[in-house]
Design goal:
Number of strands: 11
C-alpha cells in the first residue's frame, strides 16, 4: 500500500523557518521523482520544488534561494527546508511521487501558515 505522509507544518512568523518531511512507503522510493506542491487559499495547486532520482533539483521562482529540497533514499524521505518565510507562502503543502509514464502518488498535505 502506497503512503506519503507529510509532517512539519505549522504556524510561523514572517522571516521564520520550517522543515517539512514526507515519509514514503509501499513503492521503490529511489526510483521516483519527488516534488513538493502547495495550494494557497483560493489558488490553484502549484509546483514548489522537485528533486530527481540523482539529486538534481528545480524550484519555483517565488521560492528560489529560500527553499531547499532534499531526499534521503535510505530513509525513504523527502524534505523541504523553508527559510525566510513570507505570508504569501501560506498554503497546504503536498508531497508527490512520480515515475513515467503516468504514475503519481500524493500525500494528504500539511498546513503552513505564515503570520505575525
Amino acid at each position: 500500500q502506497v503512503q506519503l505522509v507529510e509532517s512539519g507544518g505549522g504556524l510561523v512568523q514572517p522571516g521564520g523557518s520550517l522543515r517539512l518531511s514526507c515519509a514514503a512507503s509501499g513503492f521503490t522510493f529511489s526510483s521516483y521523482m519527488m516534488s513538493w506542491y502547495r495550494q494557497g487559499p483560493g489558488k490553484l495547486r502549484e509546483l514548489v520544488a522537485a528533486i530527481n532520482t540523482v539529486g538534481g533539483s528545480n524550484y519555483a521562482a517565488s521560492v528560489k534561494g529560500r527553499f531547499t529540497i532534499s531526499r534521503d533514499n535510505a530513509e525513504n524521505t523527502v524534505y523541504l527546508q523553508m527559510n525566510s518565510l513570507k505570508p504569501e507562502d501560506t498554503a497546504v503543502y503536498y508531497c508527490k511521487a512520480s515515475i513515467l509514464p503516468r504514475v503519481n502518488y500524493w500525500g494528504q498535505g500539511t498546513q503552513v501558515t505564515v503570520s505575525s
